[in-house]
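Lab notebook, bench 4. Continuing the backlog of folding jobs that were queued last week. Each job is logged with the same field layout so the records can be merged later without manual cleanup. Today's entry covers GNAT family N-acetyltransferase, a 119-residue chain. Filled in by technician R.K.

JOB TYPE: sequence-to-structure
TARGET: GNAT family N-acetyltransferase
LENGTH: 119
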Amino acid sequence: MLIRYKKNYEKIAMGLLSFMPTEKDLKNLQATMKQYEVEDSMQLFLWKEDDIVGIIGTSLLGEETVEIQHISVNPSHRYQGIGKNMIKALKEVFPGKQLQPNEHTASFFERCDFTDHDC
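JOB STATUS: finished
OUTPUT FIELD FOLLOWS
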């Protein structure tokens, strides 16, 4: 289930985002979290099953496009379709909008969208 980020999820969100290659540095990670908290055009969502196991971050690009900035799944929960389910759930959160990856999420996004493999 996709849930919106709240400040009380900050530690788990930072932990999940730190799996992204661009967020390995603590200062970068803290700056990214701050952006999601203050920028109206950016939203962060968490994927909850029994526990929170994934995170996906978006940025609105105009009226019709949502760019996927970050997507990460806890390593012990990977290859179970969670990433794919997060993208499907985002399509429901942003009906009528086009989802588009950035350069850091493109290969994952394409694999989920265009093949039958679990991500």
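OBSERVATION: The first helix runs from residue 10 to 17.
SIGNED: R.K.
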